[in-house]
Automatic annotation (TrEMBL):
PANTHER family: SUPEROXIDE DISMUTASE CU-ZN -RELATED (PTHR10003)
Enzyme Commission designation: 1.15.1.1
Organism: Formimonas warabiya
Molecular function as annotated in GO: copper ion binding; superoxide dismutase activity
Protein name: Superoxide dismutase [Cu-Zn]
Boundaries of every Superoxide dismutase copper/zinc binding domain copy: 24-156
Group of enzyme by EC: oxidoreductase
Cofactor: Zn(2+); Cu cation
A Pfam cross-reference name: Sod_Cu
Recorded family membership: Belongs to the Cu-Zn superoxide dismutase family.
Cofactor note: Binds 1 zinc ion per subunit. Binds 1 copper ion per subunit.
Amino acid sequence: MNSQYPCMMAVAQIRGGPLAPNLRGIVYFRAVAGGTEVYANVTGLPPYRPAQNGQPPIGPHGFHLHQNGDCSVGDVNNPFQGAGEHWNPTNQPHGNHAGDFPVLFSNNGNAWMIFFTDKFTVGDIIGKSVVIHQNPDDYRTQPAGNSGKRLACGVIRCVYNWMNY
Ligand SMILES: [Cu+2]
């Protein structure tokens, strides 16, 4: 929703693409003192697989904000390219992008976590997207932490503005 008032709560509904068709999830962004609380609850992650034959491990999963609110699947072999690159409003190296998040650890396909960030307000991220990757984020390879293909995506929308009760 559009409002002259700041967004206090936003949600991204996460849906898996062709590489993780059963993946579903929800990510909440809540305005708190000094920044934003991020809550993620995801099911249907693929089973962990250790690195083998020069292939990176599957899981824990890279987890970021990407710049475009476009979660169309596109190329089934390389999904969700429409989401674009990492959202990087302050021109930082990867590892310190405003939307670089902790990796998601799967527990038999399920993950949930809550963390705090002071790198954006809820209003800053409306219309961006959340992406879950196949591989772990190494937090140093540019520009995206070598976290591999995109398993799932969700567009961030405001669900609650201040003064909007
Ligand atoms: Cu990403």
